[in-house]
Design a protein that fits this description.
This protein is mostly beta strands. It contains two helices and 37 strands. The termini are far apart.
Length: 445
């Protein structure tokens, strides 16, 4: 800081050098001397109009004949403002019609640092995903600047280098990376503050914004419409109209219901990979997992059901698609578009002809032990049959219903023969409405 006086000794110019905030507040001295022999009194004509300057006068009365003086302390205050400042202080004298004017000039600067962007916005990042981006720190100052981390207020999803420290030369720049690992749902505003040092320390803060949405999916599966001829091989496709590379499932169970007199499935594939399936009573059940499931959900490869069109009436059927299950559990909304299959041409009287398999049963033999008498039957299907008991004279001893399982059945006859029944040989008749079998059961004493 220097002083200069102009030639008329009425205006003093106080020029301050370029300052950093760290040098403030700064105080300099201006003196007013009374070189005459008459005591005089100072008074204020104009004070500073800018709040970055203030002054204090040591004494307002100046004695004569002793070369008395007053000290004026002028301070440049720390208002955290940058720029060039000029202000004027004017003092007057009661006995002397003159004024002293003090012009104060000063500049305050900070290192010119650019941090871009001010808000680092990652947007939406799904659970389990990660992203990396960063801030570009540029030194536009004419001196080198040391940049380091001052403080942070960040969530568990953010990873940064808290030991970061870098010296940036004039016109140089450095990138500070921020890693986002989506571990917890929600919207976040994180704060990272940098410390800049160039003779003084300064603090710049920036923001990091991102959203980790709740894992929620909407899927649309569609089966097309098909017009085929009897006995024709047709590829029925289940299409995924909303492939999503974020969705991860271990398995998916689909069912398709249809008229089994019109369509007979032969093979199911996804991207030429065979899928195991079960077809029974007009319902196709397919369990998809591993690579085929990935191709269907992520890449949108269709499920191809290759089958044969059959000759039947009615000649059309809805292909009813359903999601029977999936794992692991996630929030998924399914929009299912059913398909349609028509076999044409079909003669209705011929197509309506059906062959029905009637369940049968066979008597395999009798068995006797200390627990009673048993009859062994073999049944082709689950079925309910009637059991009639007669004595040797043809008297009806009782009628009963009996449920048979598929395969071998061992029937305890004691359940049907009461204690009051005559102790004689019996005839037992089994009937399912289509077949009738008669068994002679001797009484074992």
């Amino acid at each position: 800081m220097v002083f200069s006086e102009n030639s008329d000794n009425t205006t003093k110019s106080l020029i301050l050098e370029v300052l950093n905030f760290a040098k403030l507040p700064l105080t300099k001295i201006v003196s007013v001397n009374n070189s005459g022999n008459i005591t005089d009194t100072l008074f204020l004509v104009k004070e500073f109009s800018n709040d970055v300057f203030e002054f204090q006068v040591s004494n307002w009365i100046l004695s004569g004949s002793v070369n008395d003086s007053a000290i004026i302390n002028i301070s440049f205050l720390d208002r955290e403002k940058t720029g060039d400042f000029v202000d004027t202080l004017i003092l007057g004298f009661k006995n002397c019609p003159s004024y002293d004017t003090v012009i104060v000039r000063g500049s305050v600067i900070v290192p010119n640092i650019s941090i871009s962007p001010q808000i680092l916005d990652f947007g939406e990042v799904w659970m389990g995903m990660s992203k990396t981006d960063g801030f570009i720190i540029s030194n536009l100052f004419d001196k080198s600047v040391i940049v380091s981390i001052d403080s942070c207020k960040i969530s568990e999803n953010i990873k940064i280098d808290t030991n970061f420290s870098h010296s940036i030369e004039p016109s140089g720049q450095v990138k500070y990376n921020v890693e986002l690992w989506a571990n917890k749902e929600g919207e976040y505003w994180d704060t990272i503050c940098f410390k800049l040092y160039s003779k003084c320390e300064y603090r710049y803060c920036v923001l990091v914004h991102y959203i980790i949405p709740k894992e929620r999916y909407e899927l649309t599966f569609k089966i097309g419409k098909y017009l085929v001829k009897p006995d024709e091989i047709v590829d029925v496709k289940i299409e995924n109209l909303t492939p999503n590379n974020l969705l991860k499932l271990e398995n998916l169970l689909l069912t398709v219901s249809y008229d089994n007199f019109l369509f007979y499935p032969l093979q199911i594939t996804i991207d030429n990979q065979n899928i195991n399936f079960k077809s029974e009573f007009g319902e196709l059940e397919l369990l998809i997992s591993e690579r085929p499931l990935e191709h269907f959900l992520i890449f949108g490869k269709p499920i191809v059901i290759t089958g044969r069109a059959l000759y039947s009436s009615p000649d059309s059927t809805i292909l009813d698609l359903k999601v029977a299950g999936f794992s692991p559990g996630k929030e998924i909304s399914f929009n299912l578009i059913d398909g349609w299959l028509k076999v044409y041409p079909v003669c209705e009287p011929i197509g309506a002809t059906r062959l029905e398999l009637i369940p049968v049963f066979e008597i395999l033999g009798l068995s006797f032990d200390e627990n009673g008498s048993f009859i062994i039957l073999h049944s082709s299907d689950q079925q309910r049959i009637n059991l009639f008991c007669f004595d040797v004279l043809g008297n009806n001893l009782g009628n009963f219903e009996l449920d048979l399982e598929t395969g071998v059945n061992r029937i305890n006859l004691n359940k049907f023969i009461s204690e009051n029944s005559p102790k004689s040989n019996l005839f037992i008749v089994f009937s399912n409405g289509h077949y009738r079998k008669v068994v002679f059961v001797p009484i074992v004493h």
